[in-house]
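Most newcomers find our protein records easier to grasp once they have seen one. A record pairs a protein's sequence with a compact description of its fold. An example says more than a description, so a record of this kind follows:
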Amino acid sequence: MRAWPLVVLVACAHSSDVSTVEVRKDDLVIGVEVIGELEAVDSTDIKPPPIPDMWDFKIAQMASEGDEVKVGDPVIAFDGSEQMRELENMQNEADAAQEKLDKKRDDAALARRDDELKIAEAEATLRKASLKTSTPDDLVASIEAKKVVLDEQSAKLALDSAKQHAAAAKRSDDEELERLAEKATYAKHRVEELQKLLGKLQVTSPRAGTVVLLGNGQGGEKHKVGDSVWRLEDVMQIVKLGNMIGAGIVDEVDIAKIDVNQHVTLRLDALPDVQLHGHIQDIAKSVQIKSQTDPSK
C-alpha cells in the first residue's frame, strides 16, 4: 500500500515556535500472540544406551537446552557408580586370580622338575641293579645273587611308583591350572565388559544441531540431572532449526486476525534471543474450551 506524507504543524502554548511532524499513511500491523509447541522436522532422538539387563538409568550430566553441538560432542551421561564399584571389585578379583595362576604355574614347574629328578634317580638305581643281575652266577654267592634280584625288582617298583606319582601330580596340577585360568579369564573379560559399559553411559551426539530437551511425562516438565529414565525413553533431541513445524493456540476473539499463509515470528523458550520466521499452513475449523477450569475458547 502506498504511503502519503502529511505535514502537521504543532504550535506550543505561550511560544511562537512552530514544529513540523511528518505523518505517513501505511499498513497497520496488528500482532496476535500464539502459544504452542514447535517440533523439528529434521531431528534425532537421544535415549539411554542399549545395555543388557539394565532398564533404569539416572541422569548424571546433560547438555543445556539450546546448546549447539557437533558430531561426537558429549550430550548426556548416565550414573555409573554401581558399575564402577563392580569394576573395582572385579579388577581386584582378576588381579588375585592371575596372581594365583602364576604362582600355581611356578609351583607346578618346580614339581615337574622334582618328579623328573626322582624318576632319573630311580632309573639309575634300576640300571645298577640290572648290571648286577647280568653278572654270571659262578662269580657271586647264591645268597648274594638273590639279593641282587630283589634289589632289581625293588628298583623297578620304585621307578614305576615315581612315574605314577609324577603322572598323578601332573593331572592334578593341570586341572587346577585350568580352573584358575578359567577364573582369571572370566574376571578379565568382565572387567573389559564393565569398562565398555561405562564408556556407553557417556552418550555423544550422532549429528550436528541444537539440543532440545523433552518432557518427562510428569506435568510436562523437561528432563533434568538426577531424573530416572527408562531405557526406551527419549530424553532429548538434536534438531536442525532450519525446518520446523508447530501447533499453536489463539483466543477465539483473535481468530479473525489470522489467515492461511500469514507471516509469523516465533521464539523458543530455550533461545529467547533468536527469532524464527515462517507462515501459517492451516487453521482449525472449530474451537475448543481451553481447560476444565477455564471456559474460554
Summary: The chain has two helices and 14 strands. The CA atoms of residues 117 and 177 lie 22 Å apart. The first strand starts at residue 5 and ends at 11.
